[in-house]
Fold each of these.
Amino acid sequence: MIIPLLKGLKLTLSKFFSKPITIQYPEERLDPAPRWRGIQYFVRDEKGETTCVACGLCMVVCPSGCIYVETAEDEQGRRYPSVYELNTIRCIFCGYCEEACPVNAIKMGKNYELVGYSRDEFILTTGRLLEEESLNT
C-alpha cells in the first residue's frame, strides 16, 4: 500500500526538479515549424519600395476574398498598388497569394502575434506589409 504511494511521489519529484516543460512566453518565444504560414509581408526592392506590380492575381486567387488591390502607374510606366489592403481577420493563411504572385512580392512570414484593439489594426496596407518584413527576418 505504501510502495505505490512512494513510486508516485518519486515520479512527481523527478518531474518537479527536472527541466521546465513550459516557456515564459513574452520573454521566450518558440520558433514556428518550417512550413508555418504566418502574417504576410511585402518584399522590398533596392529603393526600399514594394516589388508588387499590382497584377491582382493574389486578389483573384484568395478564397476568402480578403485582398483588395487598386493599380496605378508612375512616370516610367511601372505599375504599383495605389491601394493594397489585406484583411487579416478574414484571411485563412492558405498561402495562395504567395504562390500566385509572379514577382514573389508577397511572402508568408513567421510572425504569429496578431493582436490589436480595433478592427482597423487588422487591415494591412502597403506600408504595414513593408513593416512586417522587419519582423520576419
Note: Residues 22-136 form a domain with the Alpha-Beta Plaits fold (CATH 3.30.70.3270).
Amino acid sequence: MPGNPLTDPNWASSLADNIERVVATVRDKTTKPLLVMYRGAVFGVIGVCGGIAALVLFTAFLTRGLQSILEWPLTHSDAVWVSYLGAGVVFGVAGLILMRKRLDSTEATS
C-alpha cells in the first residue's frame, strides 16, 4: 500500500518538507511585508533626523563662513550681526513663501 505512511520510508522527510513549505508561505505573506514596513519607518525616521541635523550644521557653517568673509571689510561684531541679519532675511522669506503656499492649498480644498 503506497499510501500507508508506515510502509513509506520517506514519509517523515516529505511531511517535514510540506510543513516547512507551508510555514515559509505563511511567513512570506505575513511577516515579510510587516518587516519591510517597519524597516522603512525606522530608516525614514533616521533619515529625517539626519537631514535635520545636516541642515542645522550647514546653516551654522554657512553663517560662520559668511562672518569670516565679512570680517575683511567689517569689524568682527559688525560681521556677526550682518550675517545674522542675512540669515534672518533668508529664513523670513522662506517662511513667507511657505505660509503663502499653505494658504493656497487650504483655499483649494475649501
Note: DSSP finds two helices and no strands in the chain.
Amino acid sequence: MCCFVLVLVLGFLGPRLAFLWAWLFTPRVTDAFTGGFWLPLLGLIFLPWTALAYIVVWSFADGVSPAGWFVVALGFLLDIGNYGSRSAQQRFSTAQ
C-alpha cells in the first residue's frame, strides 16, 4: 500500500515539479510561452505533461515541428490517462 501511495504522489507531483523547476531556473518556459504568465500557469495546474512536452519540443528547434506535435500529443494522452486512472481507481475502491 505504501508503494502505491508513493507512485500516486510522484505521478501527480512529478511533472508539476519538473515544470516548476524549468520555469524558475531556465528561460525555456518564458521562451516557449510568449503570451504571458497565464498559459504556463494553466499548463502547470491542469495539463502538466502536455506543457512539459511542449517546453521540451520547443527548446530543440525554437518552435514546434510536425514531429514535435506528436510528442505534445503524447503528453496530452499522459494527462488524460492520469486523470482517467484516478477516477477509475476511486470507482474501484468504493466498489469493494
Note: The mean pLDDT is 82.
Amino acid sequence: MMFMGNYTELDEYEVEVGVIGYLVEIIGVFNPETNLLNFDTLDYDPLFIVPKLIVEESKDMKKWSKVKLSAPLPNEYQWPQELSIEMEAELKESTFYRVKIVG
C-alpha cells in the first residue's frame, strides 16, 4: 500500500505530513539518539536521498578526470549506515581521489 501527500519541516527534528484523503495532519518527530522517526506512536527507520556524486582521480591534484562507477548509486540510504561505492578504476600508487557532490 502506498500513500501520497506532502510534508513540511516544522522544526529541526519535526515534520508535518499531509496525506491525500486524510482530514488530519500527522506530526512526525525524529529522535537522533535512536535514529528513529516516530509517527503516531509507530517508529520508522528513516531513509535519506543519495545526492548526485562524481568521483574523480588525479596524479597531481591539478588535472582531474572522472572515474566510472561499477554500478549506479542507490536512490536512498539509511543513516548512520555507510554509503559505499565501487569504482571501475584500478587503484594505483600516487593517485588522488575526490568525491564531488553535485547540486
Note: The chain has a mean pLDDT of 85.
